[in-house]
Amino acid sequence: MLKKVIKQLLQRQAGVTVFICISCISVAIASPTKLASPTPPIIAHAPALTTPALFINNNTVFPVPDALQPAVLFWYKLFTEHKSDRVIIHDRRNLAVIWHVLELPKDESGTVLFNDSQDLIENTLQKLRTRLKRLASNQKPIDIEDRVILTLAGNNSENLHGAFLKLRTQKGVADRFKEGYAYAIKWHHEIVNILHEEGVPVEVVALPFVESMYNPKACSHAGAAGLWQLMPATARDLGLVVNKNKDERYDVFKATRAAARMLKDNYRMLGSWPLAITAYNYGPYGLKRAIKRIGSRDLMTLIEAYKNDAWGFAAKNFYAEFLAVLQAINNYPSLEINTAYINNSQPVFSEPRFLAQDG
Q1: What is the pLDDT at residue 9?
Q2: Cβ-contact 14, 54 below 8 angstroms
Q3: 235-260: pLDDT as tens digits
Q4: What contacts 24+ positions apart, CB below 8 Å, involve 245-250?
Q5: Can you tell me the distance from the alpha carbon of 71 to that of 55, in angstroms, rounded to the nearest whole number?
Q6: In this structure, which of 142, 239, 259, 271 has its CB flanked by the most CB atoms within 10 Å?
Q7: Contacts of 86 (CB under 8 A, 6+ apart)
Q8: pTM for this one?
Q9: Dist. CA 272–CA 252, nearest whole Å
């Protein structure tokens, strides 16, 4: 099983992270005991974000910096708990701050109602922005939501200043992850062998979850395609055939070898695997410029200090998403494999990156 491969590679230790969420008003730490406020949730079915029992933290190839743990935990819960019928409203700079977990409205068949969902999200955002603005100028609480916001802000108006501008929504992907897991189980032995042959850490078997949810037929509106979401020019540079008659980006194993070589080149240029993984999203030359400007190869330093329009939410969170997948694979329970999903021969044209995107 895929998770057994990852378990052999990762040394884990317990981590402690605190999350406070208005819609669940709950604090949880890394222990079997969960503490929850008796206050009813503002939005129906808004579960607390809790810490997994074990947290990968001793892997020397793909370390988890303490400062990155809240982001890793945030994405872990997106992979394992929140399905696509939920939307999380959070602070885009501090992923430990969860304002609301919205349960999207559905029809009798369980299909999410798009227009009603958009209205719910926009109305919730508008009300939250108004509340944050008011509390930034006057910290006197008028209800329980105010009190939780002030607690998150440390009762410091400076922390509330501009908070209404930092709101971001993220749709859950746990159901997509389960579907992708079916593909991963099918191919992981061959993919791990290719990564090993190319001299790439085999933990990289988790990266296609971040890129395409392991859908080999995924293609983006930007032109990236296949399991590894390679752009046409990049794929050609890596030795793949991409023309009107043939596109080897959709060949799982050829694309895997090409992606492994790309990652190995990133590592040679940048000197660490966290940077190599980040460069898979941001580009190695862009990351090299960031390193030169900041004067550090430490990823957390770059995340916090580097300023560039292209260095946005997606690039800053890419490594955290990757780490979250490793943790999800390591802890994920046995799955009922959706063979219909595996055998679906229809091409999929969609935006395959369900996770961190700028905007």
Answers
A1: 45
A2: yes
A3: 999 999 999 999 999 999 999 999 99
A4: 249/225, 250/216, 250/217, 250/225, 250/226
A5: 13
A6: 259
A7: 45, 101, 102, 103, 104, 171, 172
A8: 0.80
A9: 26
